[in-house]
Amino acid sequence: MLKKLLPFIICCCVNSISAQPKTDSLLLLILGKAESSIAKTVLENPSKYRLQIIYTQIDRNKKNNPSFKNYYYHYDPETYFNPASMVKMPLAFLSLEKINQLNIPGLNKFTRLQFDSNYIGQKPLIKDSTSESGYPSIANFIKRAFLISENDPYNRMYQFMGQEMINSRLHEKGYERLRITRQFMGFNEDQNRHTNSIKFLKADGQPFFIQAAAYNTTPFDFSKQFLLGKGYLNKKDSLINEPFDFTKHNYIPLEEFQQMLQSVLFPFSVPEKQRFELQKNDRDFLLRYLSQYPSETSYPKYNDSIFYDSYVKFFFQDSTHSMPPNIRVFNKVGWAYGFLTDVSYVMDVKNKIEYMLSATIYVNEDGILNDDKYEFESVGQPFLHEVGKAVLDYELKRDRKFHPNLSAFKIKYDKRNPSDNRIAIKEVDN
User: Fold this and answer.
1) What separation in angstroms does the CA of 71 have from each of 22, 27, 58, 328?
2) Which of 97, 148, 257, 303 has its CA at a distance of 20 to 30 angstroms from the CA of residue 18?
3) Dihedrals phi, psi of 324, to nearest 5 degrees
4) Average of pLDDT values for 171-181?
């Protein structure tokens, strides 16, 4: 396959020089080892699949301090992809940061919450049957957002942060290209600017802190249009024969997602302003639920035959639905509108290797949006698995002067109580 890709390699190198999508020869050679027909088809048509990949080598010095080097394939921050559930990751980080900034004694990520309804379409929330306490909390929202990528926890963290604060805080940290404009509730632009009032409650039901309903008056720059496809189904399931407009949808370049994850996993590897203000127990909590499997989790209790171990680990998702016992992946994925995205840190404790890998692919052969006819299972997921395998194989053979000490990422994961006879959750909105 590599010989067949040589003309394409030359083309990509020329494109890189002329400020087109960026491709590094090393990553192209690694990807050339993927020999399936799906991999060949996608790699020969990266623009059609809006494919972008970032592979990050991590090398340690004798003091175990890491250094990072990114390699790119067809990367262009101006090429739109729909981040879908990827936006849950920065909102989880921001929510924990905001709790720390509130600095209210006794109030923390486990504190009970209550959401009111203050505007058209908003929904109150008083109880949460998936949590151990039976009540909503930021901690349980994060677990649900990471373990199987549920949608309502994202909406609630969005409401807690508020649209203006989400964007201003992330821009202050240097993530300047992004915008997060939408909840996953079918809201219009005005409704998304409004967020609910919220109460943090003590055990006796008395308020710790009351956050008023908010409205974002800060305008967004929507001057650059993002139009995609040849048609779409509207809310009435009628076919509209014109491109779907993503201009006012959420938008974050792939590298900014990768940098956010790196800033939490390796906070001292990024400038101070880029870090999230987290306590040690916050970071430990994030590391756990970025990597823990649904089968290891009691609250929420998910059906692990449906939500299997590799359910949100796209680079390792194959027909076995299992994960290698020596590997842990700290990551977030998203899938919607034909886009599949994964941003991951991978560690292999047996072979003492680590690396980061991020990719997004668009699979929509008929060019129609909102028809639920996407090639997720036939093209997207098999391709990302091929990418994951190719990079892992390369990393297993790559020479290192110093092997990493990975003890900082070794977590004692939860275990379900075998006598727990509660009915496991089989259906979610994600």
Assistant:
1) 9, 6, 11, 22
2) 257
3) -60, 135
4) 96
CA distance linking residue 81 with residue 351, whole number of Å: 34
Q: Which two structure tokens, joined as six digits, stand for 317? A: 């998702």
Of 252, 208, 295, nearest to 93 by C-alpha is: 252
3-state secondary structure of 335: strand
The 10s digit of each residue's pLDDT in 193-205 is 999 999 999 999 9
> What confidence score (pLDDT) does residue 16 get?
38
Q: Three-class SS of residue 348?
A: strand
Nearest-angstrom CA–CA distance, 225 and 268: 36
Alpha helices in 77-188 (DSSP H): 88-102, 138-147, 152-161, 163-172
d(CA 343, CA 353): 17
Asked which of 258-262, 320-324, 336-340, 358-362 is least confident by mean pLDDT, the reply is 320-324
pLDDT at 414: 87
Query: For residues 146 and 153, is the Cβ–Cβ distance under 8 A?
Result: no
H helix or E strand, kind and range, residue 339 = strand 339-348
Q: How much is the mean pLDDT over the chain? A: 94
Instruction: Taking each helix axis as running N to C, give the angle between helix 138-147 and helix 88-102, from 0 to 180 degrees, rounded to the nearest 10.
Output: 160
Tally Cβ neighbours within 10 Å of residue 165.
15
Structural domain spans, the chain? 2-409
Classify domain 2-409 at the CATH topology level: Beta-lactamase (3.40.710)
Distance (Å) of CA 275 to CA 34, 169, 170, 250, 272: 36, 11, 10, 22, 5
CA distance 130 to 189: 30
Contact 387, 344 (CB under 8 A): no
Coil, strand or helix at 346: strand
B/e letters for 61-80, b = 16+ CB within 10 Å, e = fewer, are: eeeeeeebebbbbbbbeebb
- How is residue 145 written in tokens? 């957002």
The token pair at 159 is 């409401």
